[in-house]
Specification:
EC 4.1.99.22; alpha/beta; iron-sulfur; binds iron/sulfur cluster; TIM Barrel; binds guanosine-5'-triphosphate; 20% strand; two-stranded antiparallel ribbon; twelve-stranded mixed β-sheet
Length: 321
């Protein structure tokens, strides 16, 4: 496995297959590229299935064990099943989706080799859901979650962004996963720096404290040092990157944008490297370069220079996290 200067091995890749989406969520950061509500890129700028598979075959050589397909909404790609079918067998394959297209397609995805799905679901309340996603698809999403469980795409992680609009629904969602086999809950800290509304922030520390009291046991996941709270039949994981040095020190993933740019960090777009029409040999070298240039985002590792560019803080040159 390739490792960066901070001792972080790259074990997973996250590939955005499109920036198109049928929702318009108020917290959307579009894999760090900015809100999907702006003009979307043309469909023909998206990586082709061949491009995606070529990339996966290269990173498999470097021991990458996991691939997550994301968007926008990745199920808007009609060739998603083909991409999954052609993903190297050695990789755990998962999908992050808004769930609307899972009814009728979950079984085909399972048959193609998909292991599990994460579905965005911010509330068990139709009106709140509509206000957050600007969509009337609540029932479809619930149906999609059932379809995923029935197809064995488990555990199905429900992704809930914790912010002003959802704070009142956290308890109900925790009860929901505690009572339903096959479901897990992922509470995602709101990221104002990507979406621009600090007033919507909720203190995630309070959610940790509340869950610590409620849980039967607590574990810490290697990836991002995330806490997992076990409540009844369910598991609740907290994704809390903001200003969290430990989270970044345990970051083991590289991203690919829908247009085929390698992206070393969710929060940065100044380090993008296009894979364009590259051969496998060229992708191999570019991937090595991107991994070598990765720097933990939170902590003292990066500083901005007078032109606003991120540069490595001199005192950390050559120092591992
Ligand atoms: N800052 C930061 N946020 C992340 C990172 N990974 C996930 N997140 C946040 O968590 C949200 C949901 O992530 P998912 O795509 O469902 O996947 P995940 O939870 O990271 O992955 P699995 O646990 O493997 O399913 C993302 O949209 C981000 O907001 C990361 O590496 N850095
Ligand atoms: S479903 Fe996902 S990609 Fe679509 S608008 Fe919501 S957060 Fe963004
Ligand atoms: S370095 Fe930190 S902010 Fe960047 S992708 Fe990794 S965990 Fe997220």
């Amino acid at each position: 496995m390739l490792e960066d200067d901070f001792g972080r091995e790259v074990s997973g890749v996250r590939i955005s297959l499109t920036d198109r989406c049928n929702f318009d969520c108020v917290y959307c950061h579009n894999e760090g590229l900015g809100d999907t509500r702006g003009p979307m890129d043309a469909q023909d700028s998206e990586m082709s299935a061949d491009d995606v598979v070529r990339f996966l075959e290269v990173v498999e050589e470097f021991g990458v064990e996991k691939v997550k397909f994301t968007g926008g909404e990745p199920m808007l790609r009609q060739d998603l099943e083909e991409i999954i079918r052609r993903t190297p067998d050695s990789m755990e394959t998962s999908l992050t989706t808004n769930g609307t297209f899972l009814p009728g397609r979950a079984e085909a995805l399972k048959e193609a080799g998909l292991d599990r799905v994460n579905v965005s679901q911010d509330a068990l309340d139709r009106e709140a859901f509509a206000e957050i996603t600007k969509s009337g698809a609540y029932e479809k999403v619930i149906e999609g979650v059932h379809a995923a469980v029935d197809a064995g795409l488990t555990p199905v992680k429900l992704n809930m962004v914790v912010f002003k609009h959802t704070a009142g629904y956290v308890e109900g969602m925790v009860d929901h996963v505690a009572e339903n086999e096959g479901l897990q809950l992922q509470l995602i800290q709101y990221m104002p720096e990507l979406t621009g509304k600090p007033e919507w922030n909720i203190d995630i520390g309070r959610v940790h404290d509340w869950l610590a009291d409620l849980a039967d046991r607590v574990e810490t996941r290697d990836m991002h040092d995330r806490k997992r709270y076990y409540v009844g039949e369910g598991m609740v994981e907290i994704v809390d990157p903001v200003e969290n040095e430990t989270f970044c020190a345990n970051c083991h993933r590289v991203r690919v944008t829908h247009e085929g740019y390698l992206k070393g960090c969710l929060n940065r777009n100044d380090d993008l490297k296009s894979m364009g029409e590259m051969t496998k040999a060229e992708i191999r070298e570019t991937f090595r370069e991107v991994v070598a240039n990765r720097v933990p985002y939170y902590g003292e590792y990066l500083v901005q220079n007078d032109s606003g560019e991120y540069v490595l803080n001199e005192k950390y040159l050559g120092v591992k996290a």
